[in-house]
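Researcher: Let's do a round of design. I'm pasting the structure tokens now; please hold your answer until I've finished.
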């Protein structure tokens, strides 16, 4: 197998990628606490994170782990953030290091909505969502102790966002996009997937609002539309991508229909973004996308499409050749193989990822996976 399509160059937005093997956004929960911040909740990127991303700089491009756009966006202790000048400055050391190694890096912008816990929220308040729905034990998030050990906990039931708050959150997306560019990011990716806040507005299993943000699909898409408008105005559409997970079930938020997904993609297409990133349900135990649905996505979105979710190099190369996707993001294989591109190009065996070290902790299972030259 030579994977010549997967390993060929591509232009995305204004970026020239040397290959189509993209590092997927991966929550690793290893950020440091802010000086004078709430202990154990994190937010500040670290030197270890710089080492981790730099090790993976041969990816066509890196999409960072999901990053909190504001204090109320936080759901997971240990996730990094991009709203404070100290965070921006530290991220700049990471982008400098990745660029020095010849890589491209963009930031995934995250508001977790109801996938959160009062103990990581400002003043211990309830998290915010489209509506005050209690999804019970189907929503769990991560907290961590002083040693960096992570544990899973049932989320705190949310309160309904006021219209003033919705406006503030839209502004937070725009400001965090500016902050990301100031931190040297080559692009930003709006996290519209996996049952987090944008997804919570899109589907009526959580969005039960009676104002202009709820009801019809057009109304439920209004929040996303305002975010797309604000973020593209802030940094330019050529620097913006979005990730959605059309048919998956995540965090208690039910999947919508294929038709709804295509309407959402049509809206996204009208913003002329650099790319559309589809998180396919396969990686989380869902059904694979139907080939006909892939065709419809292709016909609905005019720029680059990135596929992701449990891909092998073979599947990636095949779907690129078939014209269904243009590039593929790899998650778990990038955790375990910093030199994934070289391994694909040499048909070399892959290291296996260790799920016990995915979240929290330190170097182990993070920066110590061997390169080909070491193994
Ligand atoms: C996770 O921590 O499991 C996680 C975080 C963000 C996602 C998906 C999964 O988009």
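Researcher: That's everything. Go ahead.
Model: Designed sequence:
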């Amino acid at each position: 197998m030579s994977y010549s399509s997967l390993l060929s160059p591509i232009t995305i937005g204004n970026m020239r990628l040397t290959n189509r093997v993209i590092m997927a956004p991966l929550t690793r929960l290893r950020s440091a606490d802010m000086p004078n911040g709430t202990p154990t909740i994190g937010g500040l990127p670290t030197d270890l994170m710089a080492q981790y991303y730099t090790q993976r700089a041969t990816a066509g491009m890196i999409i960072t782990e999901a990053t909190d756009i504001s204090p109320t966006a936080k759901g997971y202790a240990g996730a990094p953030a991009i709203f404070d000048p100290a965070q921006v400055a530290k991220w700049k050391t990471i982008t400098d290091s990745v660029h020095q190694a010849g890589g491209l890096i963009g930031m995934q912008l995250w508001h977790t909505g109801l996938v959160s816990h009062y103990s990581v929220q400002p003043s211990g308040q309830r998290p915010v969502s489209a509506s005050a729905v209690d999804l019970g034990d189907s929503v769990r998030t991560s907290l961590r102790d002083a040693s960096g050990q992570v544990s899973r906990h049932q989320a705190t039931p949310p309160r309904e966002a006021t219209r003033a708050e919705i406006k503030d959150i839209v502004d937070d997306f725009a400001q965090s996009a500016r902050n990301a560019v100031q931190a040297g990011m080559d692009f930003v990716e709006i996290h519209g997937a996996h049952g987090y806040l944008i997804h919570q507005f899109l589907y009526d299993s959580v969005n039960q609002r009676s104002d202009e943000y709820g009801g019809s699909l057009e109304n439920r898409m209004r929040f996303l539309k305002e975010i797309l408008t604000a973020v593209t105005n802030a940094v330019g559409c050529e620097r913006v991508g979005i990730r959605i997970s059309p048919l998956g079930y995540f965090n208690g938020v039910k999947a919508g229909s294929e038709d709804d997904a295509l309407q959402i993609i049509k809206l996204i297409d009208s913003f002329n973004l650099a790319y559309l990133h589809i998180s396919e349900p396969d990686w989380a135990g869902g059904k694979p996308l139907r080939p006909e649905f892939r065709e419809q996505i292709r016909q609905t979105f005019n720029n680059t499409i990135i596929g992701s979710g449990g891909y092998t190099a073979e599947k990636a190369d095949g779907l690129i050749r078939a014209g269904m996707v243009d590039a593929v993001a790899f998650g778990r294989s990038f955790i375990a193989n910093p030199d994934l591109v070289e391994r694909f190009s040499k048909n070399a065996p892959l290291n296996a990822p260790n799920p016990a070290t995915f979240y929290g902790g330190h170097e182990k299972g993070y920066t110590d996976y061997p390169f080909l030259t070491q193994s």
